[in-house]
Specification:
It comes from Variovorax guangxiensis. This is NTP pyrophosphatase (Non-canonical NTP hydrolase). GO terms for molecular function: nucleoside triphosphate diphosphatase activity. The protein is mostly helical and 109 residues long. The chain has a single domain, classed as MazG-like (Helix Hairpins). 75% of the residues lie in helices and 0% in strands. The chain is built from 5 helices and no strands. Helix 1 packs across helix 4 and helix 2 packs antiparallel against helix 4. The longest helix has 25 residues. The radius of gyration is 17 Å and the shape is globular.
């Protein structure tokens, strides 16, 4: 997992550098980043609006590429928000999975 952690750290630093080069840090408060994340999640959802379950599972390549771009937007804003709040995304996800396992135990075999 250290490769993934290093990748996330590198990506987070690249996001910091990108924002700093454009003097955007002033706009990147946790509130604003959470709002932007919500907007991007809605844009992701828009691609699935009115599709059937089957259609949502069998997307053409061009649609998948568009959705990939929206997923990236959501991911990048999430990383920026976590960075601003000092939250380790990997550790938070692992903790949440443990909580979910306790809350929703697998049925006995």
């Amino acid at each position: 997992m250290t490769g993934m952690t290093n990748d996330l750290q590198s990506l987070t630093q690249a996001l910091r550098d990108f924002a700093q080069a454009r003097n955007w840090e002033q706009f990147h408060s946790p509130k604003n980043l959470a709002c932007a994340l919500s907007v991007e999640a809605a844009e992701l959802l828009e691609h699935f609006q009115w599709l059937t379950e089957a259609q949502s599972r069998d997307l053409p390549a061009d649609k998948r590429a568009e959705i990939g771009t929206e997923i990236a937007d959501v991911f990048l804003y999430l990383l920026q928000l976590a960075d601003k709040l000092g939250i380790d995304v990997i550790e938070a996800a692992r903790s949440k999975m443990l909580l979910n396992a306790r809350k929703y135990p697998a049925p006995p075999a």
